[in-house]
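Researcher: Good morning. I'm working through a list of sequences from a screen, and I'd like to move beyond sequence-only analysis. For each chain I'm collecting a predicted structure so we can compare shapes side by side. This is the next one on the list. No need for commentary yet; just the structure.
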Amino acid sequence: MLYPAYVHHDEGSAYGLTFPDFPGCHAAADAQDDILVAAQEAIEAHFFGESDIPAASELAVWGTHPDYQDGFWMLVDIDLSKVSTKAIRLNISLPENLVHKIDAAASAQHLSRSAFLAKAALKELAEV
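Model: Good morning. Structure tokens for this chain:
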């Protein structure tokens, strides 16, 4: 989803990002090429554990706002699938010996079974 982001930059400092739709959510990037990555990471961190993410506002709403002067606007495509961390209960079947191995590995890492399985799934998906 495209969200408006206000970018400001003073010579010798990082690019600062402000998201009017997310009060208190800010990001910074040392290089202009890193702004989009910083934006995604900031929003993921800001909404960690949350399930209710506001819809994007129209850029025109903010264009003349006095808090956003001397910078420029970007529409940032935020991957909301990486943001929403609402837990969903699943019912799965696994071989008993595999469940015991999962529980042992999860315990060694101080994780719940669910957290361990989520971590393993994310690792597998990153390798695809």
